[in-house]
């Protein structure tokens, strides 16, 4: 694979205790099991991982907990952005020094309607302050949440200024045309699908893999797609796996997505601690939870 | 005045060095001069103060720099929210223990479309973790930036759960109807105008004052409005002062507002260090800067 960061990555959910602190032991176990389920890497502390709801120290602790739980550091892709350069540098430096495969970086998301020049400076200052050749950055395009789209002009400028460091982008916009255009325009950029149904279509366009939420419970099927998509003998198997992923993805979007993913994990892992969320997210009402669990049985667990 | 937090507050801008760290000495001087200009308090580290572009440690350092620069701690109203409960607790606890008059708290602003229950939990967890009767909170309603409006149902619930702690709201929406409704519905809540032109109209409705950006350069006029608005003999003087504020506010909105405020401060204080901004904001182009300076001369400095 030509891209430094490629394969099936889980946007791992982060378990929390009832009093709202990270459940480090359970998280370490979860990351290791995601690798056993078929993931190549763990894109921890993304939107699904409630990264922005944890403090800087908690985020550092979670990276260390993943490693302590048995996940090799070079399988980790932690989200390290905050709206502030200083804290982003601290988190990014820690990830690099821990041996992470790379980091996923949101743009600063407080001010809206900001310029490409301002966004470029944010990334440039972090890269220059971390000052480590091992740094590998996956940009994070999720405009429906961040409200800060990453333009192709910005991406091109970052690739030119920091070749080998800016290596990929996670596109969670769900916009296949944007992913196609990035694959064509930026051959050096590994495009990772942020939405499960786009995994197979993106691979066929030259994409580098995925970072998705459904992989918390269905990594096995994503791995089948990854391993077989380019083998004509496996087309039927691969398309069946993608269809299975899509069913689970549809279920995860039936109610509010993040609490639903955690509701699924509670059943899958048999641990009700998974039901807890960090503010401002809240758990599903009981009726929705019971419905999700019934639907999981219907889909085969 | 019946409200714990009332009067003219400056949404103080934060000077930064060329390498993007807070200029602590210049900030301490600025806060002290804002009091000399007529402010009752310094609402530092808000949207105008680029709070979210600074790390947790830098924000703590800035509170300490304001005090070291000669501003009494009980004139400070720092913004202490981040999207994470843990870092927000750290910043809020530091402000209270430093003797601040209160804190201004944004809701967590990463996830969009969240529930009142989730927002309530965010504030409740911070209040319960800080666990200090001296805590005074001004809620911060700025939906055009945060994308997270504070509903009246949420405000009412917070007032009921934390009487004497949740004491005010800064409304930067510019929506006079919302401010009027809050003054009528919540007599215990001190409503502070976030937009300068609404200072006088809001005081006439029973509001508690303002936290505004234009006060960085025009606090004198805001103080005239505050001191005289309820005195029929001063109506003409007060309305002239409000009109003067409005002229400056209009000028500050001619280009991108925050860089414009800093451009004004560079001229006013005679220190070009004020031109620097934190990413993702950038300085005004030279032609706009020169125009702002010429317009300041026209308005009388």
TrEMBL record, chains A, B:
Active site: 140, 170
Keywords: Lyase
Keyword Lyase part of the UniProt annotation: yes
Residues binding pyruvate: 48, 211
Entry keyword annotation includes rRNA processing: no
GO molecular function, one term: 4-hydroxy-tetrahydrodipicolinate synthase activity
Stored InterPro entries: Aldolase_TIM (IPR013785), DapA-like (IPR002220)
Alphabetical list of Gene3D superfamilies matching this protein: Aldolase class I
Database matches in CDD domains: DHDPS-like
Taxonomy, superkingdom: Bacteria
Protein family membership: Belongs to the DapA family.
Protein name, entry field: 4-hydroxy-tetrahydrodipicolinate synthase
Taxonomic classification: Bacteria, Pseudomonadati, Pseudomonadota, Alphaproteobacteria, Rhodobacterales
